[in-house]
TrEMBL record:
Native source organism of the sequence: Luteibacter flocculans
Domain CheR-type methyltransferase residues, every copy: 20-275
Enzyme Commission number: 2.1.1.80
InterPro entries xrefs: Bact_Chemotaxis_MeTrfase, CheR_C, CheR_MeTrfase, CheR_N, CheR_N_sf, SAM-dependent_MTases_sf
Gene3D superfamilies named among the record's database cross-references: Chemotaxis receptor methyltransferase CheR, N-terminal domain, Vaccinia Virus protein VP39
Keywords, in A-Z order: Methyltransferase, S-adenosyl-L-methionine, Transferase
Keyword Transferase: yes
Pfam families: CheR (PF01739), CheR_N (PF03705)
SMART domains, sorted: MeTrc
Transmembrane regions listed in the UniProt entry: none
Top-tier EC class: transferase
Protein name, as recorded: protein-glutamate O-methyltransferase
Reaction catalysis annotation: L-glutamyl-[protein] + S-adenosyl-L-methionine = [protein]-L-glutamate 5-O-methyl ester + S-adenosyl-L-homocysteine
């Protein structure tokens, strides 16, 4: 059975890194090998393959395996209301300002690289809280990710374990209002889910959407790309956004080093100031 790290030739490692990059845009190098090997090893055992040469050949002929590969090589860590200052900004500044300027319109929100959905449901809860005070406010959230496995979790809306406990501890009233208990955790109520659509999407491809987004959360995914990749992705995302719309990125990310049509507003928050 395949298991020996030492047996993997550097050219095979390179070929696997190239496959990661080809299918996701994620840039991996030698220092990521132990992690990648750890993630792929079990898959090779499941498939009863003799080694990575056979696996690379399979990747070349099987779309299904490419999907499994993407699920394995992506890092899907997330949580509800991750990075508190963002949610405070949305609640206190973005929602009121947008609502005042767009009376009667539906706010279009995109959670790009949404992982298992905690970000999308956090957005929905916050928008719903705003709607309680402003009944004419409406919103729609599109949540996308390249990994179908995480999107299945997101669409089910059932959470248990660390993330569920975290939300229960920090915002018990939200769990009470927007989820129903189930097993060791809880599931999003249909009324909340109704505002969310989940769809597979690779950020290196154009998003085919008729509407332009007012708010995009593109968080904790740019760090996996190199600068040309970041520039390409950010420009694609920008083209899906309305003029003067808002982009929010992750805590360890910045747009300072790339060319983009966004103007810095405050840490992690940018405005789409390019007109075309
Ligand atoms: C660390 S998670 C971030 C989740 C969430 N945005 C957050 O900040 O908590 C990164 C996500 O990016 C997704 N991803 C990686 N490459 C992608 C690509 N090329 N297109 C779309 N999603 C991608 C991964 O599948 C993963 O779920």
């Amino acid at each position: 059975m395949f298991d020996r790290e030492a047996a993997v030739d550097p050219s095979i490692r390179e070929a696997l890194f190239a496959q990661v990059r080809l299918h996701t845009g994620i840039v991996m190098a030698e220092r990521k090998w132990t992690m990648l090997h750890g993630r792929l090893r079990r898959r090779l055992q499941e498939l009863q393959l003799s080694g990575y040469e056979a696996y690379l050949a399979l990747l070349g002929r099987s779309k299904h395996e490419v999907g499994c590969f993407i699920d394995l090589v992506t890092t899907n860590e997330t949580s509800f209301f991750r990075t508190p200052r963002i949610w405070q900004y949305l609640e206190e500044h973005f929602f009121p300002r947008w609502h005042a300027a767009h009376s009667g319109a539906t706010m279009q929100i995109w959670s790009a690289a949404a992982s298992t959905g905690e970000e999308g449901y956090s957005l929905a809860m916050l928008a719903n809280e705003f709607r309680q005070k402003h009944p004419d406010f409406s919103y729609r959230i599109l949540a996308t990710d390249i990994s179908r496995a995480v999107l299945d979790v997101a669409a089910a809306g059932s959470y248990a374990g660390r993330n569920a406990k975290g939300l229960q501890a920090s915002r018990p009233e939200m769990v009470e209002r927007y989820f129903v208990p189930e097993g060791d955790g809880y599931t999003a109520r249909p009324a909340l889910k109704a505002h969310l659509t989940f769809r597979p999407h690779n950020l290196y491809q154009d998003l085919t959407e008729p509407t332009r987004f007012d708010l995009v959360l593109l968080r904790n995914v740019l760090i996996y790309f190199d600068e040309p990749g970041q520039e390409a992705v950010v420009e694609r995302v920008r083209r899906a956004m309305a003029p003067e719309s808002t982009l929010i990125i992750g805590e360890s990310e910045s747009l300072h080093r790339i060319r983009s049509g966004f103007t810095y507003e405050q840490p992690l928050i940018y405005r789409n100031t390019k007109t075309a």
